[in-house]
Design a protein that fits this description.
Elements lengths: L2 H13 L6 H6 L4 H16 L4 E4 L8 E6 L11 E6 L10 E4 L18
Antiparallel strand pairs: 1-2, 2-3, 3-4
Catalytic activity: [E1 NEDD8-activating enzyme]-S-[NEDD8 protein]-yl-L-cysteine + [E2 NEDD8-conjugating enzyme]-L-cysteine = [E1 NEDD8-activating enzyme]-L-cysteine + [E2 NEDD8-conjugating enzyme]-S-[NEDD8-protein]-yl-L-cysteine
GO molecular function: ATP binding; NEDD8 conjugating enzyme activity
Pfam families: UQ_con (PF00179)
Length: 118
């Protein structure tokens, strides 16, 4: 599933740990965000509870995905809630942007689906 991870491994195998041609490095450089996301998406998929599902519309863009949560207990039991998650380029210094696609009343979610954690 992790297309970007396999691409990174394949590129390292073809070029070695470091390429000798700096021009090709600058055109094929992978962002810090993408390197972090390869590791974190693998960890997310391994530890995701059975009530949650992750969907990557484009497997080559790990920075954009959708999360579906179907609670099996509590006030929201039986509901199906979809969230859109976009990880900015400055990730790890800037938090991901999360938007609730399902209309819901919750004190931390606006009518437009914006999540407020302050």
């Amino acid at each position: 599933m992790l297309t970007l991870a396999s691409k990174l491994k394949r590129d390292d195998g073809v070029r070695g740990p470091r390429a000798s041609n700096p021009a090709s490095d600058s055109t094929r450089r992978v962002s810090v965000r993408d390197k972090l996301l390869v590791k974190e998406v693998a960890e997310l998929e391994a530890n995701l509870p059975c009530t949650c599902k992750v969907n990557f519309p484009d497997p080559n863009k790990l920075h954009y995905f959708q999360l579906t949560v179907i609670p099996d207990e509590g006030y929201y039991q039986g509901g199906k809630f979809q969230f859109e998650i976009e990880v900015p380029d400055a990730y790890n210094m800037v938090p991901p942007k999360v938007k609730c696609l399902t209309r819901i009343w919750h004190p931390n979610i606006t009518e437009m689906g914006e999540i407020c954690l302050r």
